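Q: For a teaching handout, I want to show students what a protein-ligand complex looks like in token form. Below are the inputs, and the small molecule is N~2~-(3-carboxypropanoyl)-L-arginine. Please produce the holo structure.
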Amino acid sequence: MMQAVELNLDGIVGPTHNYAGLAAGNLASMRNRGRRSYPRQAALQGLDKMRLLMELGVPQGVLPPHERPYLPFLRALGFRGSDQAIIAKAAKDNPLMLANCSSSSAMWAANAATVSPSADTLDGKVHFTPANLLSELHRSIESVVNTRILRTLFANTRYFTVHDPLPSAWALRDEGAANYLRLAASHGGKGLEVLAFDSGMPYQPQEYLHRFPARQSLGAGIAVRHRHAIREDQAVGIQRAGECIDAGAFHADLVAMGNLDVLIYHQQAFDRQSIAVIQKACHRLLGSPPRFVEIIEDNLSLADAVQTYFFNSQLVTLPNGDMALIAPQECRTHTAARAQIDLLKQQDLFSRVEFVDVRQSMLNGGGPACLRLRVVLNTKELAAMHQGVLLTPQLYDQLTRWVQKHYRESLAPADLADPALLRESRQALDALTKILRLGCLYEFQS
Ligand code: SUG
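A: Here is the structure, written as tokens, with N~2~-(3-carboxypropanoyl)-L-arginine included.
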């Protein structure tokens, strides 16, 4: 077995970070619609979280923001003329579409792809399936550029396969690693890949009875399992309870978190039978009983879990083998959430707790774990990927200066119509591709 690490790739918050209330079923996004946003602060908060992980000794990298407003999409919808003319016309005729093309939502990298480490796949390669993000218009735009970014970072086909996103069909809607957990004895060892889904058969009527969209299909999990060629005994599906979605937990990473042999989940997250199946499969694969912890409703209600993003903490392995919990600061002052964290620490599930301030992201319904894509890589694979995105103290300083130079302090929804915003964003991204040594990545650069 080869030594492996878990690399956290965080999405850098983009220059157009704003609150347009676009995400149906995401309570924070819906509630904060129209609020003034602070892109510079948002990006710096994200970078500070990355620096913390780096200083803890956890491998950390970055994913660049996408070009926004995304002109190619507006052109595809029939808008014609110069970039400025298109923005002016969209702002007048279809401001909602302009908002959809201006979201910085690619920052929530947990939704960028599903990743199967080489220890789990038949061909011994790391497999990526970029998510098609079909359920929300503003997010579906991300998949093309996510695919390009992943193919740039993981270009070496000897080690990596970056598939196309799944076909754009409702029965195959896919939100990536936000609905995925991997349980293993060590990062480099064989893992049990747990693929959560939100509804049963593709056209089961009950999925339409939810108040909010059920974003992850069973069909996606099955397809990912096949195309990644995950070994037979190393993949298992789990259905999420519909009540979670209606309570505002639009992804599984709002009701469960895991790392290595630890799985912490809310009582209402999954049905009991599925948990038992996973526990058994995990025991068999790991050779020892995994540590499963159920947080019961009486100790932390589903509503409080969604409000604090307790389960959206990052549970990470430190270089000394201990685990650390990187929790949103909202949990620090919340009595029930804080009590659960203290209890889990007493039970030795992790030895260290860090509270992070990612409030600008939280106001759009994205916590610490939403902001990162986990990629388990062995030593050779880590060396074979693009090194320019790996965070070092120098890169952190460069990126901080870059944000301070290019990002606006604040944005109101009406500012999305400002043609200068497009110019500024492109200048910022152009400079970023040089810092990260990415070459020509965006359409506007070609
Ligand atoms: O898809 N918010 C994102 C938050 C994603 C959270 N990710 C995970 N749980 N892994 C979403 O709902 C808000 C965008 C807006 O309103 O402009 C938004 O898309």
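A: Two things your students might notice: The chain has a mean pLDDT of 96. The radius of gyration is 21 Å.
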